[in-house]
Write a structure and sequence with these properties.
It is built from no helices and 4 strands. A hairpin with a 6-residue loop joins β1 and β2. It is globular. It has one domain. Strands 1, 2, 3 and 4 form a 4-stranded antiparallel sheet that branches.
Amino acid sequence: MQNFKNQIILIPVFEQTGGSGPSGWYKIYGFAAFKITGWKFGGNGSSDLNWNNTGTPSCTGNCRGIIGSFQRFIDIGSTHTMGGPDLGAKNIKLPK
């Protein structure tokens, strides 16, 4: 999880969904770029499950979530296109 600190990830924006389980399907409308600036997935204190969960906004009590902000435009220099409207994301790649 350390590789995701302060990284920009691409979140799929779904237009339609159907089915369930192994026969479920999703029609992706596009991708939104999101910069991760903190998270809380369990417990209290500092650990891999909690990082930079201070300030505003923060995740307190029973809250579990990812803290960050949507980015207006990310140019990663790719000419690869996937179809659908351009929401600022050009390629899908997870950090190593």
